[in-house]
């Protein structure tokens, strides 16, 4: 199916474990973004990428790592999960600089015990 | 200066009424102001957007009013329907090619039948 997908949709893990959230888009969009959504904070940008092999920090990058070896994939890794990283994570993509709309995936609900 | 402040946090409106959500920003360089709509369990989706050189934009029952001098913009939902019940986020875009969005805290709207 065309669009932007995230996996897994739900994940429960324990403190200290490594977790990778996957994001895949079929539009060949250049720009991709990772957000976390927490009540009272809206959507906060974790990392973003302008193209394959080009990534940069957002507002709340600590404790997260990203990579982008292929245009269509943008995985987010929590190297050592903490309870404060319990959240809903959204991946988004955007096409050319002339087109402003970001398209969001369905989200991954992560619980860190 | 990068913040976008959104109010109210929650809103209850009767069917047929007008829903109004407000946002304020500080950075006068922002060049694009979208509103996203999010239903439970889904990712946010673009609802309507405006550029700072326009004071109002209307799409169906949804209108953005933009006050550049006051650095405020608002979403008006006319003839609100139960199907409009969702979380609404305002956002502002930095004037760069990456198109990073700064989101407000979100407003949960409930439209009572």
Q: Summarize the amount of helix of chain A as a percent range.
A: under 10%
Largest interface pair: A-B, 24 and 24 residues
How would you characterize the largest beta sheet of chain A?
7 strands, mixed
Order of helices and strands of chain B: EEEEEEEEEEE
Distance from N terminus to C terminus of chain B (CA atoms, Å) equals 40 Å
Structural class by secondary-structure content of chain B: mainly beta
Helix content percent band of chain B: under 10%
- Helix vs. strand class of chain A: mainly beta
Q: Which residue ranges of chain A are poorly predicted, with pLDDT under 50 across at least 5 consecutive positions? A: none
Helix tally of chain B?
0
General form of chain B: globular
Biggest β-sheet strands, sense, barrel of chain B: 6 strands, mixed
Query: Please, what is the average pLDDT of chain A?
Result: 94
Q: Determine the strand fraction of chain A and express it as a percent band.
A: over 45%
Task: Give a structural overview.
The complex is a heterodimer of chains A (113) and B (113). Chain A is mainly beta. Helix content of chain A is 0%, strand content 51%. Chain A has no helices and eleven strands. In chain A, the strands form two sheets. In chain A, strands 2, 4, 5, 6, 9, 10 and 11 form a seven-stranded mixed β-sheet that branches. In chain A, strand 5 (42-51) and strand 6 (54-57) form a beta hairpin. The termini of chain A are far apart. Chain B has 113 residues and is mainly β. In chain B, strands 2, 4, 5, 9, 10 and 11 form a six-stranded mixed β-sheet that branches. In chain B, strands 1-3-8-7-6 form a five-stranded antiparallel β-sheet, with no helix packed on it. Chain B has no helices and eleven strands. Chains A and B meet through strand 4, strand 5 and strand 9 of A and strand 5 and strand 9 of B.
